[in-house]
UniProtKB/TrEMBL annotation:
It catalyses: D-ribulose 5-phosphate = D-xylulose 5-phosphate. This is Ribulose-phosphate 3-epimerase. Its cofactor is Mn(2+); Zn(2+); Fe(2+); Co(2+). CDD domains: RPE. PROSITE patterns: RIBUL_P_3_EPIMER_1. The active site is at D33, D173. GO terms for cellular component: cytoplasm. Keywords: Carbohydrate metabolism, Cobalt, Isomerase, Manganese, Metal-binding, Zinc.
Length: 217
């Protein structure tokens, strides 16, 4: 399967959003990092901003909710135009219920695991998930370094998905650059999130094309 790319808006110039979106129109998704200052130490943007940019791009919206008790906001983010909603397993006491809420809105459902969270936590929800988001940095900020142990975590999850024939993609998020992309794709990543490697580049369109080239080798 072809590797898909989801540039993270967090690294874009927020004063030029329309222009920034045009630069990455060849991506597969737009990754939207929502941070509440409670679940993670940083505050980014909410459903109002997502709604405002929904009309400015054809890209699918891959919304990553780094917020505590995401069940309070599923409807808001569904109505903002998200296509995929990913919540953190660690941010709710009722992850299965939240997955059901997302699916009831007609959206694809993802669950994200922090670097220290075991894959065992997925055992009873994996058959219902459209994607698992493996955090390869601690959530909260762009521009951090990839945590090397996450490569083995990706391979292990890939094996579980293949052995059980689950229809679940693996998305990997944090610290991904041209130099470490190949091993992450080989380990089993289906969707690559990249913030600083794309929006921080002089030419984001070219950076995206280069990363696609590396992933398809
Ligand atoms: C981190 C976010 C990431 C971040 C990735 O909490 O979930 O999506 O924007 O940024 P880079 O690619 O710069 O590590
Ligand atoms: Zn993210």
């Amino acid at each position: 399967m072809k590797t898909e790319f989801a540039p993270s808006l967090l690294a874009a110039d927020f004063s030029q959003l329309k222009k920034e979106l045009q630069l990455i129109e060849k991506a597969d998704y737009l990754h939207l990092d929502v941070m509440d200052g409670v679940y993670v130490p940083n505050i980014s943007f909410g459903s109002g901003i997502i709604k405002a940019i929904r009309e400015q791009t054809e890209l699918k919206f891959d919304t990553h909710l780094m917020i505590t008790k995401p069940e309070r906001y599923i409807k808001d983010f569904a109505e903002s135009g998200s296509d995929i909603l990913t919540v953190h397993l660690e941010a709710t006491d009722h992850i299965h219920r939240v997955i059901q809420m997302i699916k009831n809105e007609g959206l694809k459902a993802g669950v994200s695991l922090n670097p220290a969270t075991s894959l065992n936590t997925l055992e009873y929800i994996l058959p219902e998930l459209d994607q698992v988001l493996i955090m390869s940095v601690n959530p909260g900020f762009g521009g951090q370094s990839y945590i090397p142990q996450m490569t083995a975590k990706i391979s292990k999850l890939k094996k579980i998905i293949e052995e059980n024939n689950y229809q679940c993609k693996i998305e990997v998020d944090g610290g991904i650059k041209a130099h470490n992309l190949e091993k992450i794709v080989k380990a089993g990543a289906d969707i690559i999130v990249a913030g600083s490697a794309i929006f921080g580049a002089e030419d984001p369109a070219q950076a995206l094309a280069e990363m696609r080239g590396i992933a398809s080798n």
